[in-house]
Amino acid sequence: MLTQINGLHHVTSLASDAQQNNDFFTKTLGLRRVKKTVNFDAPEVYHLYYGDEIGTPGTVMTYFPFPGARRGRPGAGEVAVTAFSIPKGSRDWWANRLAAQGVQNIISQDQLGEVRLRFDGPDGDGFALVETDDARAPWTGGDIGADHAIRGFHSTQMRLADQGATAELLRFMGYEQRGTEGDITRFAIAGGPGNGANVIDIETLPNAPAAAQGAGSVHHIAFSVNDRAAQAEVRKALIDTGFQVTPVIDRDYFWAIYFRAPGGVLFEVATNEPGFDRDEDRAHLGEALKLPDQHAHLRAVLEAEHLPPIHD
Fold first, then answer.
1. Three-state SS across the chain?
2. How far apart are alpha carbons 285 and 266 in whole angstroms?
3. Distance (Å, rounded) from C-alpha 134 to C-alpha 85?
4. Which of 28, 39, 202, 254 sits most deeply, having the most CB atoms within 10 A of its CB?
5. Using CA atoms, how far apart are residues 25 and 13, in angstroms rounded to an integer?
6. Residue 309: how many CB atoms within 10 A of its CB?
7. Overall number of domains in the chain
8. Could you tell me the CATH number of the domain that includes residue 158?
9. pLDDT at position 192, please?
10. Segment 44-80, tens digit of pLDDT
């Protein structure tokens, strides 16, 4: 069993409009935009990062907003719900806030003994807020105070046709089964809270159709390791177990490796180093458009023709 994984690092999804996406996460949910850059493989598309004050691993939601992208089709083989941690007693406050801002499909629910609020993002994304005792410091630079503000990720919930092989993978990655309720089985980092974003739920729906990615779909989930040495150990162990793992890729703010989990979800293992403040002062994170070196020569054409200004 691996011991290097701390919990989630980030979750990356697809969207249809950059401004709409930015407004939802910074104004509705009150997160901080910590980086404005581009998709390494499609630099005409933004890559936007939202999280706590400095983009601490375990707090960061990221998006590729492809203009006008068609919505994804929900189904098996995807991450269906991304859940954030909120203080206990704040669900009703959030329900009122989300309703006032026109958020769709707001549902109060209890799941595995936790008080939750389910709702949809602008592209039909599945989200939840979960009441927890979470000591992580929130970002309070907007209009949401510390008594209610999001602390970071609580969990992701995968929807799979069969959980068996993915559950085995999670156990190998250092997770242990913590409970079952109906179709949902919970796994959490063994032996402790990890970085606070330490829960993975699996919803097993054998008859669900296969998911199709589009706007509102999660592209991949990333797991946190401290550094490149730990990542190398994880990569070797995964390869030795039979997984096809990419070489290490420099993503400017972390190093990444990718592999496909048996249930169909794309997994990443990302380092906590060097962080989002490597090229911006912490007081000004997410303000300027940052381009990776290989795309720096494209700045003029990207800003003029492909990347419309995002208004805060």
1. CCCCCCEEEEEEEEECCHHHHHHHHHHHCCCEEEEEEEECCEEEEEEEEEECCCCCCCCEEEEEECCCCCECECCECEEEEEEEEEECCCHHHHHHHHHHCCCCCCEEEEECCEEEEEEECCCCCEEEEEEECCCCCCCCCCCCCCCCCCCEEEEEEEEECCCHHHHHHHHHCCEEEEEEECCEEEEEECCCCCCCCCEEEEEECCCCCECECCECCEEEEEEEECCHHHHHHHHHHHHHHCCCCCCCEECCCEEEEEEECCCCCEEEEEEEEECCCCCCCHHHCCCCECCCHHHHHHHHHHHHHHCCCCCC
2. 28
3. 7
4. 254
5. 13
6. 9
7. 1
8. 3.10.180.10
9. 79
10. 999 999 999 999 999 999 999 999 999 999 999 999 9
The answer to the question of residue 173 being in a domain is yes
72/214 Cα distance (integer angstroms): 4
Beta bridge partners of 185: 180, 202
- Using one digit for the tens of pLDDT, what is the confidence trace for 115-153? 999 999 999 999 999 999 999 999 999 999 999 999 999
Number of C-beta neighbours around residue 70 at 10 A: 14
Query: What gap in Å lies between CA 250 and CA 260, rounded to an integer?
Result: 19
User: Residue 193: pLDDT band by 50, 70, 90 thresholds?
Assistant: confident
| Cα gap 91→86, rounded to integer Å | 8
Rounded to whole angstroms, the Cα distance separating 185 from 179 reads: 6
**What is the extent of the structural domain holding 139?**
7-306
* 275 backbone φψ class: left, alpha, beta (φ>0; ψ -120 to 50): left
Q: Is residue 311 part of a domain?
A: no
Residue 191 has pLDDT above 90, yes or no: no
Residue 188 falls within a domain, yes or no? yes
pLDDT digits (tens, 9 = 90+) for 76-121: 999 999 999 999 999 999 999 999 999 999 999 999 999 999 999 9
